[in-house]
Amino acid sequence: MSAIDRVHEFLACGLSSFPWRIVLSDWQDRTYTIGGDREHWCGQPLQIRFNNERGIHDVLALNGKEVLEDFVRGDLDMSGNLYVLTQIEQYLDLRSARWRVLGALVRNCLSQTISRAKVNVSSHYDIPQAMLRCYLDRTYMSYSCAMFEEPTQLEKDELTQAGAGQGDTFDSLEKGQWRKFKDAVEFIDPSRGDTLLDVGCGYGGQLKVALESGRFGKVIGCTHSHNQTVFGRQLLSEFDASTWELHEADYREDTRVFDHVASTGMVSHVGPRGLVPYVRNIRQRIRTGGRYLHHALMSVHSSRALDTAPGIAFNKKYVWPGFHWFTFGDHVKALEQSGFQVLRAVNLSPHYAKTAAAWYERLLQNEAVIRDLVNQETFRAWQIYLAGCSGAFTSKRSHVYRLYCEAV
Fold this sequence. Notes:
Blueprint: H1 3-14, E1 22-26, E2 31-34, E3 46-50, H2 53-60, H3 67-73, E4 76-80, H4 88-91, H5 97-114, H6 129-135, H7 156-160, H8 173-188, E5 194-199, H9 205-212, E6 216-223, H10 226-236, E7 244-248, E8 260-264, H11 275-284, E9 291-299, H12 310-319, E10 326-327, H13 328-337, E11 340-347, H14 349-365, H15 367-371, H16 376-394, E12 398-407
Parallel strand pairs: 1-3, 5-6, 5-8, 6-7, 8-9, 9-10
Antiparallel strand pairs: 1-2, 3-4, 9-12, 11-12
């Protein structure tokens, strides 16, 4: 029996109930399929090609911690429906002791592999700006969840079609990002002349849409990224300079009190002990009665340590060092204890699944350009990251919420 025959028999047993098609092949073009025929919007099976015996041996030896490294290194290739990678653990048959061992390895493979990887990516913002421009929206360069008209309707052509924003006649990524920023303005409902602080303002999209409303006296943004500061100032240059500020600085260095505050995704960077201090600092920057929009990625409640979850471990050590997610309950408790009343909460997980899918499809669409900017290892790491994010939010293994709050 050949090596690929053994892999097929092995995975066909362990993934007998896996609903989506997986195509396995080797360097001699021997091919097998496993899984079912459930439709997936991607329209393709997950294709795994073993380029040498190393990847095959890692699977057969239950050496799950090496499988991701095999892909990054090129010992195996993956293409097609990478969105279902995050579903594999859920469908593993763990009834036998052997599969329990494999399950444990799968849960830890992303974490263990990363520590030995040689991909030169230390954070979201270390990759070239030109690469970000290839997959983020063209208008705002927003690096957080968009709000779509039809979040569960995913079509490749629409995901990759570049829009302009508010006036788009289709459900574009650009319009979804505009809708998110507009939603914040509508919630805050400012009196004319009010001030707005945007903590972790990214490339300035929220500030731009706030100024376009004509209702704020001044908007202020803070970011730690030099590239974001430069781009954001260009984005805001069309407005009167007296109506906006964008600083490459820590928001805590500004001791002013503002009428309202928005924070979209910033809390993911505060660390495992930083949620309560972060929210307390926000409360010190906002007047009583002011409105605070708290938009955050969140983990599901689990008895498993957060960092042992495959996606979390991969993101931390391969793509997004230093980030940490808290549960929905953690966020609400921190907000209430720090002087905020949560008026409303909205789960945007389907919206983030579509956002990440749009990023991933645009990444693939611009693969030739991106490969001139980064090496294969970096490109493949981001393939796994973006497709994995979309899959995790689709399967409800991760969440993103907008909490609409008032300072009391």
